Amino acid sequence: MHESRRTNLVIVGALLLIAAAFAAYAALVMKWIASPKAPAPHALVDARKEADSDLAAARDQFRERLLDARAHLRLSEALWKAGRPIDAFYVMYAARQLFSDSDFRRAHAEVVVGIGGPAADARARLKGLADPATTIPIHAEVARDYPDTPEGRDSLDQLSRLASANDSDDAGRLARTALEELYRDDPKNPEKFAALAGAAFGRGDFAQAAALADEAWNKHPGHAGAARIEGMLALKDRDQEAARKWLSAAWDKNPEDLYSAAKLAQIYGKGRGEPESALPYYIALYRKNPGYADDEPAESLIRATLDRRRVSLLKDAPVEGLGGRFRLDDASLRAEACLRAGAFQDVRWVDALGALLDDDAEIVRRDADYALYQIARVEPDALRSRRDAWLGSEKPLMRIRALNLFADLDGKKFFPAVVSALRDPDPAVRAFAKVMVLDHYYTDSPEAAKVRSRYLATEKDPDALAFVKRFAAAPR
Length: 476
What we know:
There is one protein chain. This protein is mainly alpha-helical. It is about 75% helix and about 0% strand. It has 27 helices and two strands. It has a two-stranded antiparallel ribbon with strand order 1-2. Helix 11 runs antiparallel to helix 12 (about 225-235). It is elongated and about 80 Å long.
């Protein structure tokens, strides 16, 4: 009796420690998602409902169009806007692996960056023009009419760069005048102010930049653009702590401020040696520029940090406590919970792991697959009793992962089911069955070679054929 009670106390203690770690991490992540000034309760409820509705629609579209890079990135964006940045990162990361660079970049520009539309049409008038007297008014018009578009922000950057020239430069004077007018007409806009004050900073007039920032902050307390300039000035003076506070204030108010995100990532990651504190900023930078690098690619830094954190947080999680971990709003922790379940080889988690074969994130689907394989090594009947249900599921992601799982588990005996999957009504299931299963588990089979040829001769879906072609040289 005493031994049982002591065991229960150990389990409860471990769960409390893990809960505390999750709470601390949640506070860190939510700090940069939340606005410093909380909206009215009804606005929060409406925004939450809209984000949840958008996420549900994006999830449906993603599963209906698994071979379309845009559907992957729409899901990533919906997860980001629903306050799930880590899931958003993993969905985008998987899309980069699945699609060609050109397809991914085109989808990213359309879905995430938002290039195109009226702002792009307005900027098209710049083509072939070089005279600043002609180009500056166009940049100013785009920045005025479309300030929240990538084209509008780029026009502000162009004006700020020109305005950084010395006083004897005509183009510099024209650009400064344009920026002054933009700021005067919209004094609370952080990007317009930062472009104006940043130009002063760029030409070395730090006193003017500071004066502009102080004035803007005093007139509009909490001004994100003024906070960014104050942070820039603090960095110039090598005052890391002041820079951290100012840049945090800027980014909390304006999550599109990638300058502040980049500097905060450096301050936390390199200056303070706190990679987990730098993580939110690297994810924000990666979202808008998946190729972003700071000595090392952001993608690698993010993955390495998440891998260390997930192992650390769940290394002592008892088998009894895994159920709730499968439902966390963090793909890295859901994936690690799967690996823990596989290490325990506990049959009680078979159905929960089976449900995760349909997870949004490939890392979770893959690790759930692996965990189920580990459990099948000691309880094979527990898996085989569910085989038909998973292979016949209405969920294409579950069918795809079940194909991989049972091909790995049953080898040649499973080959007829693979052949059947090549006739699945969903082109994505057919394509993945060919690339992930047929080309991986049955590479040396003459019969598989015939099936492969027949599939290629009969497949008519262009997206499926493009996907198969992309991985033809490197089957997996």
